[in-house]
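User: I'm writing a short report section on ligand binding and want a predicted complex to refer to. Could you take this sequence and histidyl-adenosine monophosphate and write out the structure as tokens? A short remark afterwards would be nice.
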Amino acid sequence: MKYARIKGTNDIYGDEISYWYTIEESAKKVAKLYGYGEIRTPIIEPTELFIRSVGEETDIVQKEMYTFEDKGGRSITLRPEGTAPVVRAFIENSFVNKGFPQRYFYIGPMFRYERPQKGRQRQFHQVGFELFGSESPLADAEIIHLAVKLIKEIGLSKFKVVINSIGCEKCRPKYRDALKQYYAKHIDEVCDDCKRRYDTNILRLLDCKVDMEIANKAPKSTDYLCGECKEHYENLKKHLKMLDVEFEEDHKLVRGLDYYNRTVFEIRHELLGAQSAIAGGGRYDKLIEMMGGQSVPALGFAMGMERLIIAMKAEGVKIEPALVNHVYIAHVGDVVETALKIAEDLRRQNITVVMDVMDRGLRAQLKHADRIGALLTVIVGENELAEDIVIVKDMESGEDSRVDINFVVDFVLDKLNEIL
Ligand code: HAM
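Assistant: Sure. The structure tokens for the complex follow:
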């Protein structure tokens, strides 16, 4: 084979597309229910945007970005995530003048140079939601509730919500110190990455997969929260209970991006194995200001579409097929004009019609109708047409009906109503 797709990317087609439609339509439906408008940002952004926002010391920036120089000598990066671009758009287009809160969602491809494995791609797709302008824990509850609603709308039920609060710039230094003291005693037991992170990103040591017992016994961020962060976190939990959102608390949840403060959360699927996070998010109250905008609190989450699909398949979620070929029009002899007219009359009734364009014999046409799963085939033939008749074949039973040409549309509609 001469050309193969890039490792960690996928061609998506055929029956698989139905899963993508289900997620996209569910996302749009839920976005509408909560008043989120769509935003579409470019796939390429200045590299600096991600270094500043996601964080110099994160895995994404250190190892995973697709970065290249364009012909004008600028450093460009394929977006590894969606929050930084939306924040850039927010600042650049002066969204701040529109008043608050503002709610946005997006759907699209993201790129990270990770080691491909089940649920981990180099080009993957996210659905994300971002809410700007509210500091209230009610906004955190809305975002988490929305995420759960969307996952249920997609048809999933075997998941759990995990939350934590990592505090703010006032209380986090104390927590960091506590972690440093604790990990100083265990530095020989953690992985090489974590030894490096000890100085640069101590919170990430809680994520170390080498010896989880060490992290389990580490100091908890929630024990170090300042009064305001504590109250915020308690109120979030109260609101989640009001909304009947079940959740677990996990002090080891710190997330891999630097912009978070206070609330962080993940939604994990039971049947997914190592890459179990189907959604992740949290607050990023300082990001907009840090990126050169005004001081605007914000929060959001994104979910991985490939992982959602693995979960849908694992749970056996029933989905609507993306395409049902209702009617195939077969025609033999000098009857094209009538065949075209029937096709158009049917399409006007929102019926999917596939018409033969290969000038093949009837047998070959019927074979093709079968292959594309047509429910009915309208056969337009010279002999029948001389009597103002066409034949409608039920492809499942094989039964033929002779139908007056003036009543084809009504007949097909009735028949489809019976079948569907
Ligand atoms: P994230 O946790 O890096 O957060 O990604 C969100 C979700 O994207 C993950 O939970 C996972 O389902 C999916 N995902 C991430 N990397 C891959 C990959 N290599 N292959 C397949 N799926 C993947 C963010 O990206 C934040 N921007 C979320 C956010 C929005 N926070 C606030 N607003």
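A remark for your report: The first strand starts at residue 37 and ends at 38. The chain has two domains: 14-171+225-315, 327-414.
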